[in-house]
Amino acid sequence: MELTAGMDNFYQLKTGFFVWRRGLALAQNITLALVYACATGIMAQASFYLPWTPVPVTGETFAVLLGAVLLGRWGGASQIMYVAIGAAGMPWFAGWKGGAAVIAGPTGGYIVGFIIAAFLLGYWADKYIRSSGFMKIFAAMCLVNFVVVYGFGLAQLYFWSSTAGHTLALSELLAMGALPFLSGDIVKITAAAAIARGVVKK
Q1: Where are the domains of the chain?
Q2: Angstrom distances, CA of residue 29 to CA of 2, 88, 97
Q3: What is the pLDDT of residues 129-161, one digit of tens each?
Q4: In 10 A of CB 174, how many CB atoms?
Q5: Is the overall model pTM greater than 0.90, yes or no?
């Protein structure tokens, strides 16, 4: 009986969260997006660098993808705030960095890609998340991460390297900007999808 009551309370909390979020006024949604932008900045500090690449391993991917599911399209708005405030000088990009130079640097494409990915995933979540199981959520997160975020990230990394006087071959580009991060991103996406499936009311 206690287990059944606990499950009932959990499902009520899940339902209540999404009912509450969808009923928020504009100012409340903006505040919620700002709070999540701060959460993304905190997750960005869970980072470290590999010796052969200027692109760090960070917790941002987890924050961006989970936020897009929980907040819907407002998850995209939170990433606009995260990028805009960081570019204005707030030191909450990975490694406590801030300023427009980060956006123009080797990691800028990934950061801008977070915005597009969050909007696309958030739009999908607003329309389809309640009828989606774990595998659909996992696949949607993989799609926006590996196509959108990596696409923008690799393009910016290639451009940055070229302007620095070193034109990267495709193998070099992938070794610096994609291959070292694949397994870690799979783990982060799996965790984000599992949490999202647990939170979202089927």
Answers
A1: 2-199
A2: 35, 22, 27
A3: 776 789 999 999 999 999 999 999 999 999 999
A4: 15
A5: no
